[in-house]
Amino acid sequence: MATLNLLVAVSLAYVALLFGVAFAADRLAAKGRSTWLRSPLIYTLSLSIYCTAWTFYGAVGYAARSGLEFVTIYLGPTLVMVGWWWGLRKLVRIGRSQRVTSIADLISSRYGKSNLLAICVTVLAVLGITPYISLQLQSITLSFSIFFDETNMRGFSETRLVLWIAVGLAVFAILFGTRNLDANERHHGVVTAVALEAVVKLVALLAVGIFVVWGVAGGVGPALARIDASQIGQWQVNGGRWAAITFLSAAAFVCLPRMFQVMVVENDDERHLRTASWAFPLYMLLISLFVVPIAAIGLELMPKGANPDLFVLTVPLSQGQDGLAMLSFLGGFSSATSMVIVAAMALSTMVSNHLVMPIWLSRRGSGASVSGDVRHIVLVSRRIAIGVIMALGYFYFELSGGGSALASIGLISFTGIAQILPALVGGLFWRGATRTGALAGLTVGFCLWVHTMLLPGIGSELMPPSVFESGPFGIGWLRPQALFGIEGLDPTVHAVMWSLALNAAVFSLVSLLTFPSPLERLQGAQFVNVFDHSAGPRGWTGSVAQSEDLMIMSQRIMGGGEAQAFFREEAARQGIHAGLPEPTPAFLERLERKLAGSVGAATAHAMIGQIVGGSSVSVEDLLAVADESAQLMEYSSRLEAKSAELTRTAAKLRDANEKLLQISQQKDAFLSQVSHELRTPMTSIRAFSEILRDTEGLAAEEQTRYAAIIHDEALRLTRLLDDLLDLSVLENGEVSLNLGTGTLAEVLDRAISTALSGLERPIEIRRRRSAENIVLHTDLDRLAQVFINLISNAQKYCDAPRPELVIAVHDLKGRIAVDFIDNGSGVPPEAQKMVFEKFARVVHDKAGGAGLGLAICREIMNRLDGEIVYLADRTGGAFRVILPAAAEMAAQ
Ligand code: ADP
User: Fold this and answer.
1) CATH superfamily membership of 4-364+371-513
2) pLDDT for 29-43, tens place per residue?
3) Which of 854, 869, 874, 880 to probe ligand 1 with, by most ligand atoms within 8 A of CB?
4) Which of 264, 565, 659, 816 lies 20 to 30 Å (CA to CA) from residue 31?
């Protein structure tokens, strides 16, 4: 019997060989000499990770226990491969066009890139695979223990052995699966090693089979006779279980993360599927060919109570075939390790992409890019994920006690993973499927699976027998193996039926009731109609006719000169001296890069794709284009806002400029008016003073008359200068008010006496003193100045033969108005608007002033918060002074 040392040495040598193969394959792939690595054969062989240790050891045990039912495990995938070939092709096409990295990624990107959904699928996959990992641990442990005899077992318990195997597998998976990071998550080395393992396990099983049939039974005929005689021949076929398990294995074949990894992610060429569709069923046929003979002969040869799961090992050993047993051990070892590597790789990708990275990125803030530290985080998180997954498998093994038959553990995993099927198939074929529907279906399926299969499978620690008898919390219709009171079903059929049926029903119903988001709709269309949207192999080639289109487009984007120079340069590079360059891939790539500088990478890619690719644009491209246009729009709206602001500023500047112009014109007009007003009296003063100086013998009365004129003119000048000064002080707001209290009657009295003093023919003034008994609190002197001006104006300009001035006081909606109305002809209508302006004079005569009086009145009233207006509807000159509201006090 082989010793443990030899076994360990062989295993290590085998692992070293696998490493060597993987390393060499990676080297070849890196050098680009990997055509045979990408052959349909390698692809088909890599699919064989479907056949794990469960199939290698478990199928024989399954056959020994349940007859031909083990066939269902092969039947499901065969049906998928043959009958649903087109569905797989669609999956592979989508995987390629959407650059999908795992099944969680596929589901999440189908349903609007929902990370929540990816997390759900990841968690479900990790939990679903856990029993499976423990299955591999169990089978390797069992196979090791077969080679132990008493001396080897010294101080070595089975639990310790499992732990060491788990650690060994974890290290193995980490070394294999996370050696490098590839953007497409392709691993040529691993796939090649897996293909080699597929050959080893097939050869091992065939060798044992041939030995059993020809070496032990003595030929095909006797072997068949022995099978008939054994209990396998007696087994009844249970139709329900057959259908359920066939369906389950078909579903698992599509949904298992490791199958998705080799079938979709690692696929190099869609056409490989065509070969695999017949070659893989053939592989499964070969690997299952000798299952029944080995089981039958094993049952016959081995003592009662021997574990039928190990017949593949124990039968050769019992016949003294140590070498064959060793080969068989390597076959089982291959089955377990290849499954663990690929599963751990697929799961750790999902965990790091959908659980660790989003958390890490959100904690890091937005600045992260795919740089060295991110790579480091990804690698570390994948390694830790593999460790955690292996640890979960180990704990499941410990919890379930490792006692169950391999096949039933495998079915638990299959059912868990199959919960992804409704969301996956719905997503591929039904545009109406929504994210909420997928989430709801997955949740329902997952809960039912945990309740009806996972927990009952672990055993009494987590689910006491009372739950089986009377349901959780005594709720009878929730009994894990008799949901809704339907009893008598096989537990597996029961769990598969309820979990998948309710999962699918909830998924469809919720999808019908909810609306997909725009992104989901877009992705849904891309997935369902993937064959309309994506070209097969990537890479652009085009005809010269397309070069013209490219030229036109480029000119539009880069501008004529630059585009022509670029095309000329490219043509010269291709050796073409007149005409446009050929649209070779290299040229297109450079053009794309050049255009990207102006319109953004995504837009450039989409534009060239439109012209050359002939294919429609991928969703990714569309979204990126939308992103870029959103940025452009934001930029242009910012520009618009700026230009609107500039327009407003320009308008303000124009207004200000106009005002300045006006003011400057007013100033010029004012200066010329003033100089004119000053010049007139100055001229007469000069003229008369010259006469006085130069004329000798001027009569005394003449002298007096001239001197009087000079005096008058000087007075006028002084008055004018006083008025100007007063006006400018008022206009500049520099005047300070001298507030005081007095009655209106007093102010009027003072004004009248001042205005009329020294006049030979004073105007007759009529007033009603009783109405004037109003107390004012304002600048009384300034108010009197206004009154004086109005009274003297009436005096000056009233042309009636008997001039009269009526001063009337009114109450005008709570304010006091004092009207000054004379019986002259007044101000003509066209001049009425003007009279308050500076230098406004209706009649130019000597009697009149400079036309500043009313302007001063208006300024004073403004300062006093009152008003002065001309009353147009009266016959004579009529002015109204409205007293300031705050200045009045209640009439006494
Ligand atoms: P001035 O200081 O020359 O009197 P004002 O500004 O006081 O100038 O008056 C402007 C013009 O309004 C006068 O030239 C005159 O023609 C006209 N005006 C003012 N008051 C009366 C009135 N009571 N009747 C007729 N015209 C008047």
Assistant:
1) Sodium/glucose cotransporter (1.20.1730.10)
2) 767 666 666 788 888
3) 854
4) 264
